[in-house]
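subagent[fold] <- orchestrator: predict structure for attached chain, return tokens only, no commentary.
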Amino acid sequence: MKIAVLGAGMVGRTIALDLAKDYAVTSFDYSNKNLELLSKLNSTIKTVEVDLTLYNEYTQLLNPFDIIVIAVPGFMGYKTLEAVIECGKNVADISFFPENALQLNELAIQHQVTAITDIGVAPGMSNLILGRYNEEMQVQNFECYVGGLPKIRKKPFEYKAPFSPIDVLEEYTRPARLQENGFVITRPALSETELMHFDGIGTLEAFNTDGLRSLLFTMNHIPNLKEKTLRYPGHVELIIALKDAGFFNKKTININGIEISPLEFTSKILFKEWKLNDDEEELTVMKVIIDGTENGVTKKVVYELLDEYDTTTKLSSMSCSTGYTCTAAVNLIAKNMFSDKGVFPPEFVGKYQACFEFILNYLKERNVIWKKKELAI
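subagent[fold] -> orchestrator:
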């Protein structure tokens, strides 16, 4: 079976390396540097340098492949997914674009395509967990807290990104939607900061981001839904200062006759500051809390993840916890364990117990271990 991975950044590279253990993999990217690094890690993976924004060339480009993985930056994710679906190719997507992927559902059905979207860590595993327990209990409350952090805290930001800084800045500027008492409300990103303790790390700060995505539409029967991002304390204050000063504005300004977007300028500066080096240790921390009733009994289910940089494989924790969830989904499609046609956010996959358990076991085999606690209340 032949698989194409669109995007060879840190997460796309991890995906390609994992899939190459069992499949014939070709990686596509605009960056020759990214492709050369991937080739050094596994010379059996074919690499193609190409501009992936040339969507009209996808039919010819992707014709030889059975399954496509989309790991491109979020700003081009929706059009990439649309173009892949129009090619009639089954696909797993982690581009985390701001548009509603469910708008492509009819197109996917028309082309008889299985498309699993947002299949990373969060969104991704958080959706899978909720989708599973939504089948077993009457959920009243869903909370997700998640962050990727460097092990060594370097001032001023104490943060490193395993993906494009502009995607992080999008997360910091897009208004956060959450559900309270059955109503969708909007709050500013970075708002309602709270300090929380996490075993193995200590105190982190949690703040609102627009991470619920498809859950606002597919799980709107649940009264309370929220997701918050985690950072080391003090990070939010710095980001808000930059935001208020206009560094995240998209509208161009004229500097000595040159039109410059403050957001693009800031992203370029932060790329160096936030760049996660290949040998730099980092971690992923995540907690999913589900409250509800089962057979009249009130209970709380908690899933926790604390995953660290793998010193053996030299792969980042965030790229593994994100990428391996995606490659697990690719295997679901390849093994015909999930073959429904249309666009499916992870909660529609997680509702099937066999799929949910397959993904958890797949991650465990790769040392990404989720711990579960169930508490009667």
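orchestrator: received. Logging for downstream: The chain has a mean pLDDT of 94. The two ends are 48 Å apart (CA to CA).
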